[in-house]
Each structure stands twice: as C-alpha cells, then as structure tokens.
Amino acid sequence: xxxxxxxxxxxxxxxxxxxxxxxxxxxxxxxxxxxxxxxxxxxxxxxxxxxxxxxxxxxxxxxxxxxxxxxxxxxxxxxxxxxxxxxxxxxxxxxxxxxxxxxxxxxxxxxxxxxxxxxxxxxxxxxxxxxxxxxxxxxxxxxxxxxxxxxxxxxxxxxxxxxxxxxxxxxxxxxxxxxxxxxxxxxxxxxxxxxxxxxxxxxxxxxxxxxxxxxxxxxxxxxxxxxxxxxxx
Length: 233
What we know:
Layout: E1 3-10, E2 19-24, H1 42-45, H2 55-63, E3 71-75, H3 85-94, E4 98-103, H4 108-116, E5 122-126, H5 135-138, H6 144-156, E6 160-167, H7 174-183, E7 189-194, H8 212-222, E8 228-232
Parallel strand pairs: 2-3, 3-4, 4-5, 5-6, 6-7, 7-8
Antiparallel strand pairs: 1-2
Helix pairs in contact: 4-6
C-alpha cells in the first residue's frame, strides 16, 4: 500500500466513535476542483515516494490502539487503485476494527468482493456529476458502465453507505441535481460538500463556492430526493 499520511484520531467521520484515517497515494481522476493535486498527478506523486509510511509501521500503530479506536477509514485520493488494497483490509479486519472505504466507483469487482466477504462496514462513494456527463468534471476518459455497476452493487447489498457530491456554482443547478438523483434513485444518504477555492488542479477552473445560506437552500432541494440529505462542512 502507498500510504501518504495517517490522521491518528478523528471523531468527524462517526460522531461518538473514534477513527483513524489512512490516506493512500494517487488517483485515476483529474477533477478540476481537486485541491490536493500534488497527491494525484504522477509527476507530483513521485516527490512523495521517499516519504511514504511503511505498511508495517501503520499496523504497529494500530496494534497499540486496539482498545481505543473503533474505525479505520481508508481514503485518498483513490484507494481502489492500490493493487494490494484487499490484503490490506483483511489485515485490518483481523484486528477487529470496523472499516470505512472512500471511493470514486472505479473498481466494481473489488467493491463487490469486499462487501461479499464482509470486509467493509461503511462505504462513502463520490458522485461527481450525472454519469453521462462525467468527463466534464473528472477530465479523463472512463468507462461509465463500471460506475453504474458500482452504484447498483451499493444499492442492492445490505451495507451502510452514503453518496457525496462536491458542488460549485460553475456547474451545478437544480437540473443537474435532479439528473444525479436519477442516477442514484433509491439511495439512503446524500451529502453535499462545498468547493474549496484554493490550490485547484485546474488553475483555470472558474468555480465558485456557495454561501452558507445558498447551501442551506440547496439542501432543502436535495432533501426531496433521498431519506437523509445534509451539508457537510
């Protein structure tokens, strides 16, 4: 596993529960608004290769927190591009931690295997835009069929999950929100996250974040589509 950083303790992912967050290195997307692109672009990623956290060091840390931590959150950039993610999660589960995976949908086969073998306890899945318009945001050619398959897996398995969307005034309106909902109809939870206007991968991206009042107005619209809709600060 290419581990770029570890946040040893957080209560934000699961209020009332203690988690540690593992950040993996690299991503298959090139989203315009990515504000940590130094961990995404290959020419930038190379600069971090000598500073990676050894997997053995991470597990030594976990073993000292067995009675303190509840969850291990695996996030990134995109964890499922890591070739040994499956084995990594197996080792975490052997220590009896709950596992949350953050992902962008790109590997439905791995997702299904992890769920079928009860290796995941929660999945947070990004939905960037309506599937048929995805390239506008992710800036690369991807097979849309695999995103749809991942969505179907998540909706049809008895697993706790959420969908989440980063929004910007440049490309979001009520029609786009409706189209996204049509892609994930039946979803239980959908969170909106505001654009961070700094250090963007596409320096020419003319995105603007929403004000708190505007976010609350959007949340009211989104709440008509799913059981739970919240603004994530």
